[in-house]
Amino acid sequence: MTRSILTQIFFIIVYIFAAIGFFLTVGYFAIRFGITNEKGIIDVQREAFFGAPAATQSAAAVAAYHGPWQQSEEWTIMEAAIRRDTATIDRAANDSGVPARIIAANLISEQLRLFFTDREDYKKFFYPLKILGPQSQFSWGVMGMKEATAVQVEANLKDPSSPYYPGAQYEHLLDFPAGTADINAVRFTRMTDQHDHYYSYLYAGLYIKEVEAQWAKAGFPIEGKPAVISTLYNIGFAHSVPNANPQIGGAAITLSDGTRSFGALAAEFYNSELLADILPR
Hints:
Layout: H1 3-32, E1 40-42, H2 46-50, H3 59-64, H4 73-84, H5 86-96, H6 100-117, H7 119-129, E2 135-136, E3 140-141, H8 147-157, H9 183-192, H10 198-217, H11 226-235, E4 249-255, E5 258-261, H12 262-270
Antiparallel strand pairs: 1-4, 2-3, 4-5
């Protein structure tokens, strides 16, 4: 092999690694500055879904609604997967102090968003295996949590001065094994484990517990308000601003029967009778 050919191969390899480095760097700054955040909406379209102003919607009216998504093949797959994961969801709910149905409501919004936006992956992988779809690029695991959010969840557990601090009983739930050399790698493995979703559910439950603590300390408790909780789950710590009149919204999720906000879709499930036998309100 001539020197010129070796030189060409060398430069090709250098260019490949340079390109990989470039895209990883772009990805990092995209996450850092919120470029990857999905465009959100304030949910003002519920009147069209339920035939009455949002302010007058009752849980019974929502429970009575049966849209096409509830009869879709996506829901059939999701229901089967959630039933298999019930014990794991219950365990995370018990450890985090957040009702299992609240965690599941956010799971369902996240999974329906994934199913209806990444249909090719869904058709190739999730449909044949009857599994929930994990994310591993900018958001992690079946609950779609970003790494920076997970890191903040961990930090809030250890800081009694934080407005998000949920209490001493939660401080050690996310401890890493003594002597862990690469915490980032362990965190990633925890949250993206396709065979055990416990940590995905636990991080989600603790995030909810922490924003509930923040709002309660500010004098605006949100426990028992699934639409508000799910909106806050979707928009993140930075946008969690306690107030007397929280709006329902989040990422716009386009389903076969129209567009919902993340928070409204989660509440739609929560107030329905879907999976009520295993995830009671």
